[in-house]
Write a structure and sequence with these properties.
5 helices; about 75% helix
Length: about 120
């Protein structure tokens, strides 16, 4: 008697088809195309998780620099001053202060100016 892998095969195909829902055309219908589309989507998702970190850091840098420029200071001088003053705050928090709490950000800038 021949043994088939019907149940695991169906389960595997079903899982791939479920993940391909919403894809355009045959990429969501035909199993061979679905496998390719899902593999490619996984690759893009992996890369995207790495890019997200870079993009957020760039955004924080831009926000900090914009807030510094309003006080006749620059981003690089601020970061250098904070390092010299032994103030260890990450860019995410500094950017949040620059957007939501300008007084606290001004205090940081003053400390950085004093340390330079």
């Amino acid at each position: 008697m021949r043994v088939t892998a019907a149940v695991p095969s169906r389960k595997r195909r079903k899982r791939a088809l479920e993940r391909a829902k919403g894809f355009y055309g045959a990429s969501s219908k035909r199993i061979r195309t679905v496998y390719d589309a899902v593999d490619k989507a996984d690759a893009h998702a992996y890369v995207g998780r790495k890019q997200k970190k870079r993009q957020y850091r760039r955004l924080w840098t831009v926000r900090i620099n914009a807030a510094c420029r309003m006080m006749d200071f620059t981003y690089s001088k601020l970061m250098n001053g904070l390092k010299k003053a032994n103030i260890n705050i990450n860019r995410k928090v500094i950017a949040d202060l620059a957007v939501n709490d300008m007084e606290a950000f001004k205090a940081l800038v003053e400390k950085a100016k004093a340390a330079c």
